Amino acid sequence: MxxxxxxxxxxxxxxxxxxxxxxRDRLAAPALRDRFERAPAxxxxxxADRQPLPRALVHAxxxxxxxxxxxxxxxxxxxxxxxxxxxxxxxxxxxxRAEPEDQSPIATALREAEEEVGLARDFVQVLGTMPHYxxxxxxxxxxxxxxxQPGFSLSVDASxxxxxxxxxxxxxxxxxxxxxxxxxxxxEAREFLSMPWTSHAEGGTPKSYFIWGATAAMLRNFYRxxxx
Length: 228
Known about the structure:
This protein has four helices and twelve strands. It is of the alpha+beta class. It has one domain: Alpha-Beta Complex (Nucleoside Triphosphate Pyrophosphohydrolase), CATH 3.90.79. Strands 2, 3, 4, 5, 6, 7, 8 and 9 form an eight-stranded mixed β-sheet that branches.
């Protein structure tokens, strides 16, 4: 992205409230396990995006942590540090580039989640992977979906992560909360998705988070996978 780009200032083309939300019974842990064991035929959704910057592509993985919170499931997300060179300040999943010692994209995601936010893999049950997503900054990202048992504690690497928060999966799997934006003109025009979320922590001040770009696109593909 160009310097000082503010996605929240881009016009909203549409809100996808004409699409049905994923039924609540499909968002329960047993149903999620079954969905990955017996995956339906489906097609990833490719929102228009710019070509990657002219540099060598880098393989990376992110962990999509689905946290079991009683009868509900939340998605654990991070806000990236403003000091990072790629995607500073954006909302993302824990993750990063593959290292030579990683035996698979899953190994990369688990290692990065431990390093970034201190999420111990003993609490993590991997369900499977989603189609990779190539970012404009040249990362070929494999999303690794996992259930996370409660009781974990986090230790955030402040050099990479400014904050960790959770959003209800049901909220993110409802296209009534999915917005399409436009940026640029002519041949440079492209679209991107956003899923704005405002937390209402008990006793705390409401805080807004703008989930957009690659993270929103990967969540949208997860919606397509569960809705198929």
